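Following up on my earlier thread - several people asked me to post the actual chain instead of describing it. Fair enough. Here it is, all 101 residues.
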Amino acid sequence: MAKRSMLEREKKRKKLVDSHMQKRLELRKTSLDMKLTPEERFSARQELSKLPKNSSPNRLRNRCSVTGRPRGYMRYFGLSRITFRKLALEGELPGVRKGSL
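Reply from S.P.:
Thanks for posting it. Predicted structure:
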């Protein structure tokens, strides 16, 4: 099980990403629009840099939904490799079976 503080930090980051996503997308679009003047694009980049660092989606970390483990994450199932193997062997994951007989 992951440390409680790490899980709470991840929740806080997720909330920040969700709350600033629309503004971040608008500023990003403005900063890349070549039809605007360089000053307008530069000001959009400055506004973008003023947003909180943790509101960037790149700062999110994929974690196992059961244990919170950050490594060995399987995106399709949302589980770590250890939890996936345990649940698959118990027959808890529909449609998943062992590769060897």
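The first helix runs from residue 4 to 32. That should answer part of your original question.
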